Amino acid sequence: MTEGKEKRISGLLRENGIRATKGRVEVLELFLKAGRPLAQMQIMDMLGTKLDRASVYRILNAFAEAGIIHMAYVDGRHRVYELPDKCSGRNCHPHFSCRNCGMTACLEGFKISFKGALGKGFVAERQKVLIEGLCPNCRE
Ligand SMILES: [Zn+2]
Ligand SMILES: [Zn+2]
Ligand SMILES: [Zn+2]
Fold this sequence. Notes:
By secondary structure, the protein is α+β, with helices and mostly antiparallel strands. It has helices spanning about 5-15, 20-35, 40-45, 55-65, 135-140, and strands at about 40, 70-75, 80, 95-100, 105, 130-135. The protein has one domain (about 5-140): Orthogonal Bundle (Arc Repressor Mutant, subunit A). It has a three-stranded antiparallel sheet. One zinc ion binds near residues 37, 72, 82 and 93. One zinc ion (ZN) binds next to helix 5.
């Protein structure tokens, strides 16, 4: 990890009132490096044996509570989180998920307007639109 990146990570944690432990820094670094939404399972795979499941779970919850990440969508029992660099928890965008490898992508240019579809008296709080399919690697 370069010094600039390390500073950015510890700064982000400090700003949000989270103490920079080794595990937290590693998880946040994965999100910054990936540049796309990550599920807990994918984070576990990337970390190998560095952190156990419960620790990763706790870190993700703490990050989500602090607003460092938010839930992009839920896939079965898996929560998929992302950094709020292109969206916010309340104003997110649709996502793509590969059903074979679990690769995820943000569909930023794709806005779904549900104006008029929601009946009177309903309030939309966030959209959680998920397109499922195969990524270019898995299509071959
Ligand atoms: Zn989002
Ligand atoms: Zn795939
Ligand atoms: Zn996204």
